[in-house]
Design a protein that fits this description.
345 residues, alpha+beta, six-stranded antiparallel beta sheet, Thiol Ester Dehydrase, Chain A
Amino acid sequence: MASAASRMDAFALIAPVFIPATIGGAGYAAYKINWAETIKSFLRGPGRTRRILVLLFVFFNWKNLPFAWTFRVFYSIIHHALIRKAPSLGPRALFKPMISTTRAPLLEIDYNLHKSNSTFFTDLDVSRSHLVTYLFRPALRKLTYNQQSRLVLDPKTGEPMKGPLAILLGAVQCSFKREVAPFRAYELWSRLLCWDRKWLYIVTHFVPKGTAKPTEWLDPSYRGVRVRSGQDASGGWERKIIATAISKYVFKVGRFTVHPALMLDDAGMLPERPGGWMSGEDQVGDESADVGDVNLAVEGEWDWRRIEAQRRKGMELADKFQGLEDAHGLFDGGNQGALRRTWPG
């Protein structure tokens, strides 16, 4: 979502004109086409075998075609921000997962005849875009027009910060456990893990399609979809998980870093907290507050103590993830020599 969301300000301006014009143009072109003759020529005309094979290849590998990644990412943003605007679900939705389904087409298969590890990251781009746009839509819109909304102010002058909205990907770490066979369907369950003064952390689990089913859906438009019956919806999945990834995002207005808690609060995801969510030495609230008695294994009211307990639990893992930053210091610039240059790269 890094590159796509950084252009949301421009997209918000052109979308009201671009989308209707595109749909209208496509509809008029479709109206003018003689579909019966076109289909007949396609299926029966000279070279039909090659055309049908090419069509089947495109159909089963569309997600790897040129500009398909761009379409998938921008569609997630357009869908949740403009077409079917995400509802405001409140603090209870803060740590709930967004589920997306896809497959491993032929062009993602490596020489081991399963999904290449490198292709997991394009799926993550799309899954994170769905989650962040869905949760933060009101705040993202305000940041897009920060001069008018005054959501983020310059701490020195008190005036609105200037510059375009950007949501930048800082790092991704993915741990692989099981392979994905060709054309097999799988799901990505992405949810908020935690946040600190700078970073928003997201955890994503890859699982085979149909492996897990939620006990409820929070989105009102999805209430009619079947849910999982039973008391425990979290046991035994470690034997089926394909991979798990952690990503971190930073919100920017121009070059100014926006506190993730400010975004969460403006999106209606945080309840009131004594002293606020951006107080304290590390600007993540009063860390001396005791929340050890909160039982996260039992569903309860999502007040500030429960949310803070969940955030701290996530930070235990995020702190280890942040330790990878020290690896940058291992680069010596060739002071100890090198092997050689290779081609192709």
